[in-house]
Each structure stands twice: as C-alpha cells, then as structure tokens.
C-alpha cells in the first residue's frame, strides 16, 4: 500500500503529504530521500508484521545535492597493528559494562522503562550526563517541549563532546528513550536492544577512548613528538548524541516520532558558531554551523541480539561500512572475538558464532552489493540530518530483532558475546578513524579510566520502583 510519493514534495520544496493510514506504517519505515541525495519511498509495512524490508528500485538517480553538510572525502584508515588490537581488547574488559547481570554496569543503569517526560527518563539522562562529565567532556542538555498525541511533552537530548572547539566532529548516536506504552504490563518495556545496549556501548567507548584522545592531544602539542597523524584527523573530535523521543507515542508519523532528532537537526542548521582559531582553516563557505562541522553521523539502533545482519545503506559511507567489516575481520583473525552463546570455543580464530541469519561468513555485516544507491533506507533518528545533507552511517539490525517492541526486548534478548564483539568493532573503528594507536599512545600518557562515577552510580533505580 503506497501512501505517498514524498520525493515529489521534496522536489517542489514543500512539506510532505500526510499519510492516510499511519496505523499501517512500521516504526522504522523504508524511505527514499531526495534532499539527502536519495529518493524517498513509502513503506508497505504493517505494524503487525514488525519486519521492515527494503524496496529495490532501479533506475532512480539522486537529483539534489546536500544542502548544508560538508562532504567528507574517503580516506584510508591507518590499520592498527597486532599489538594495538590486543591492547584494545585487553586494556579494559569490553564485556563488563554491557553485562545486565552486573548491577553497576552501564547497561544496568539504563535498562529501566524510560519513556520521555518521566522520572525514569530523567534518571537515565542524569546517569549519561554524570558518566560523561566524569570524563571531563563538554555535556549539553538540549531541552524542549513538543506536542505529542498525549499533549505537550518535555524532551531532552544529551550531547557530549570531547573537544567542543575542534574543527571536525564525528558523532556517534543512539536514542536513550524507551517506547511509551499506556497500560500495564507493556509499560514495563525496557527496550534492551532499542536502544539501551547501544547507549551502554557508547558510554564504554567514551571511557575507553578518552585517555587515548588525551594522549593524542598531548603529542599533537609536543613539537618534538614523532607520533605521525594526519592534521585533519588530529583536528577531529568525538561527539556522542543521545536522542530523546525517538519512539512514536502512538503510530509512527512525521510528527509522532524522532522528536529529539528533528529538534536538534533544525537547531544545528540555524545555530552559527562563533569564530574560533581552530576553525579558521575550514573550507566551508560562510559561517560555520554545528552541522557544517559534522563530518559523519553514525547511528546505532536495535543492536545486542545475537546474529544481527547490518547492511550498508548509503554510497557515500560505504567506505566507513567497509571499515567496520574490516575491523571485525581482523579481530576475528587475531582470535580476539568470543563466540556467540550458540556454540564455538573461546578464542577460536575467524568469525565464528554468528550463524544462520547473520551476514556473510558469520559476520555481523551483509556483503555489499555495490548497488547501495538503489536501496531504500529505514526511518530513524538520522533522517532529519540526512535531509540536511549530513553524511550518515546507519548501523541497525535488519531484520529487526524478533523481540522488537515487545516485553521480550529485555536483558534476556541480549547476547553478551555479541555485545562484546560490537564493542571491540567500535573500538577498532574509532581508534582508526581518530588516528589513535593504543600501543603507542598508552605508554605516553597514562590516565585511569573511571569504570563508573560515584555520582553516576547513585542515580540508578530499578523498574520495580516505578
Ligand atoms: Zn523502538
């Protein structure tokens, strides 16, 4: 059932035509977006199917270029050495903070019902903020009110930036709200894969990378340093975005979904950064906005269940997708990946442990076809940024985990070896993106990584206290 041809409305630069049957639309519908260089197409999905699929459309060409964002050239990542890979897997346990059985893990602190504008949502937000402030990152709480089917609601995005003055940023994002359900027992929904686990991954990654980023800054300031790093890479910082209000309160529509992402993309398009010496060499025209200094938005969603399959959606970030695949392959070859719970012994080399339903050869990633430009994409928090011209890498399991939007999306839906593998893949990927070589940097500036802030630990509350 085709609702609308929204790409036509993009071409005429008008608002999209509202759908006639929103109840038939999946929360993550498949679209083509012309404004971001892709065409948008409506979904055929029903909420009962809970399974998105991609529409294959051939012969469609992108007709509009990006409006705001900066195109970032593809570049070679300097591959981490074997010792760096081993350091990265061993220096802080990549499972600890993703273990729901550990009551002080990041995951346990997030895994409560946390729909927007509730006290539990605030508790989780406070935990995110406290954890990142403990690392001395710049943390912004972006609060606003928007209308929902249940009236006006308060929302707050959390944006944490290692170096807010850096001329380049790569943003890693996920949504921290859980889906609102009005009645018991569904109002106990905790969204383990959706997206508590991705948020916990992000916090652990920040703690892991923080001392390396400090060491990178120290060598960059040292005129006698022999640490080799590309100047633009050295000027790139890491930003974490935790979106509020990703979920629809009722059925997914343009106005009942991705509240936080829509707000932030609009705000960042219309905010002008004050002049700063570090940004003076940026090649963009005119004044800088937070969007014009954002090189890539990497969005995580629906991760943590075993045997995910993640595909590449956008041609301009296919090289980043390939870097994820490469990271996973090298970790497997080095024997650093644990098996999934469904078999294989620890330390075995190769990509074992992701069986039927996963990507090629046990990988989490679907083999690229080379025809990604003709694939649709899944509606999610990246869409307003995509439309604003930001380069997007969408890391989402598709098909969705079978527990999607059910009470079964709790701790039992998560597979710890799978989460550990995600954590290591992200460590390798961001170390290489940011020019961090753990074996060299870890000897230059030792700084303890706080496993948890005392302040952060104090904000946890169990679901039973609701
Ligand atoms: Zn969801």
UniProtKB/TrEMBL annotation:
Residues 338-358, 442-466 are annotated as: Disordered. Its EC number is 3.4.-.-. It is an enzyme of class 3 (hydrolase). Keywords: Acyltransferase, Hydrolase, Metal-binding, Protease, Transferase, Zinc. Transmembrane segments: none annotated. Residues 157-427 form the Peptidase M28 domain. Residues 451-466 have a biased composition (Low complexity). Belongs to the peptidase M28 family. This is Peptide hydrolase. It comes from Dentipellis fragilis. The lineage of its organism: Eukaryota, Fungi, Dikarya, Basidiomycota, Agaricomycotina.
